[in-house]
Every structure is written in C-alpha cells, then in structure tokens.
Design goal:
Layout: H1 4-15, E1 19-23, H2 68-71, H3 74-81, E2 83-88, E3 95-100, H4 103-112, E4 117-120, E5 125-130, E6 136-140, E7 143-146, E8 152-153, H5 163-169, E9 171-172, H6 175-178, H7 208-223, H8 229-244, H9 252-264, H10 269-283
Parallel strand pairs: 5-9
Antiparallel strand pairs: 1-2, 2-8, 3-5, 3-7, 4-5, 6-7
Helix pairs in contact: 7-8, 7-9, 8-10
Length: 285
C-alpha cells in the first residue's frame, strides 16, 4: 500500500505516537456495523480513556494505536484507501495540543503561554505541550484543547522525530492552559427537596444522634465525590432511604440537606428529585 496517509501512520506508530485514519472531510471514520449505535458497549460512550477493542477504526480517538499489526490489518485497509489525513491521540502520546484557530488566538498565546513546539494548521497553529489534561472546545475565543479523549490532525514536524524526541522539545504543560478547563464552582442553588417518606415501620434508631450522624456522613460522601457524581448521589440517597426511610424519622429538613450537598457538586434540582424518586421506587418506600 503506497498511500501517503498510510505511510505517515506507520512512521508515527514506529515513533510511538498512536494514530488513526481520517476521512477526506478530516473526521474519523464511522463506526462499523457491529459498533453502530453503541451496540458493542463500553468504549463507544467515550467517557473513559483507553483503546478501542474493535478491529475496525471505530470510536474516533479511542481507535488510535501504535500497533502496526492493527494499522496494516484488513479491517483498516479500506479506511486507508479512503483516508484523507492521519490523526493522533495527543493524550495517548503524553501531549496536550492548544489549537489556535485565528490570529487573535495566536496573539493571546504568544502573550500568555510559554514557547514550545508550534506547527502551522490550515487556519492557525497547534502549540504542543508535554503533559495531559481534559480536552475541551471553545475554552476562549478561537482556542480548543485537545489532549485526553480527543484526536488532532497530524501536522508534520521539521525535523521529524520520535515521541521521546518530541517530548524533549516541548515545554511542560503550563498552569495557564490547565486553568482554561477548570470547572468554575457552581453557585449553590436553593435546595428543592422532595418530601421525606412518611414511614410506618418500626424505628431502629435509639437516639436522634444516630440519624444525624447518618445524614452528616451522607453529606460528606456526596461532597467528597471527585467523579461519577450522578451515581454517587443516587447511591447515597439509596443508602439513606434503606436505613432511615421506613420508620418516619427522616424529615424534610434532612432531605433538603442532601439535596443542597448534591447541588453544590453541580447537580440540578431536577436531577436530585429524579434520583430521590428512583431510590424510593427501588426500595418501595
């Protein structure tokens, strides 16, 4: 096979940079029939980093690989025949790309960011930094961040180099770039709580302190969540209701405290109410 994108992909893979083919419209190839509509499960939801397990170049960034056996496989052959360019997974290479789309963005970068490896693009420049971070679009006018769970079109370096050589040439990812995707604390909205279940079962709590301790621990669990906040909130509601939801000790004020803790983590009142109702329905309280 003599297609330029294919040759480029092999060179990059040999250098340690995970690659995938792009269609002529410079977008990844569509999922194969077996993976269509996320029917294969797992990787298609794009929520967690890691390689795609499909033999075809499916799921965008997750298909990126340095495995020449995969790149030269029959499952990828058709894609290379229709490829218009090569992309790579910056996060998989230990890199972050600051994608500058116009002159204004480039001017901002020159004034705000440390100098590093810079490559020209169709509309602007890619500034490459050593280190990874969450990817995000439109972090400021004309600026996108491509790193973990994202792909970037490969732009030739001069002179060419291995991944270790590229990492040696790039500057460390600066805090000014990391700050562009830092989540701003959400203002705590007034808690909108669902009513506590009336409960008509026997009370297992010897003192009010037991209930108070349980609610405080539930608030702490929600507040400490660093990921999977939706799931943590639901599981916490479920635990509280399973322990305190049948005897009538749980008051509306307790529910309001749980909702307030959840909303401080970014949950909406509607999400809180839905999670509460789902937990009650599951337990039948």
């Amino acid at each position: 096979m003599t297609l330029p994108p294919f040759r480029t992909a092999l060179e990059l893979a040999a250098a340690g940079i995970p690659v995938l083919p792009l269609r002529k419209g410079k977008v990844p190839f569509a999922n194969c029939r077996a993976c269509l509509y996320t029917s294969c499960g797992g990787r298609p939801n794009m929520k967690t980093p890691g390689p795609c397990t499909c033999p075809a170049p499916c799921h965008g960034w997750a298909a990126a690989t340095t495995d020449t056996g995969v790149i030269t496989s029959p499952a990828w052959a058709t894609a290379w025949q229709g490829a218009g360019a090569v992309a790579y997974h910056p996060g998989g290479a230990g890199l972050t790309v600051v994608d500058l789309d116009d002159d204004e963005a480039i001017t901002w970068a020159r004034a705000s960011l440390p100098r590093t490896v810079v490559v020209a693009t169709t509309r602007g420049q890619h500034w490459l930094y050593r280190g990874t971070m969450p990817s995000a679009n439109a972090v400021r006018p004309g600026v996108d961040i491509k790193s973990v769970m994202a792909y970037a079109r490969w732009r030739a370096l001069s002179p060419p180099c291995t991944l270790s050589g590229l990492l040696a040439r790039t500057a460390d990812l600066p805090d000014a770039v990391r700050a562009l995707t830092a989540k701003k604390p959400s203002p705590v909205r007034p808690a909108v709580a669902a009513p506590a279940p009336a409960g008509d079962g026997p009370c297992r709590h010897r003192t009010p302190a037991y209930l108070e301790r349980g609610i405080a621990m539930a608030e702490q669990r929600i507040t400490a969540a660093r990921s999977a906040v939706h799931a943590t909130v639901y599981q916490t509601f479920l635990a509280v209701l399973s322990t305190h939801g049948r005897c009538g000790c749980l008051a509306d004020g307790h529910v309001a405290r749980l909702f307030t803790a959840a909303q401080a983590k970014g949950e909406t009142p509607r999400h809180c109410a839905d999670a509460w109702d789902s937990a009650r329905a599951r337990l039948g309280v």
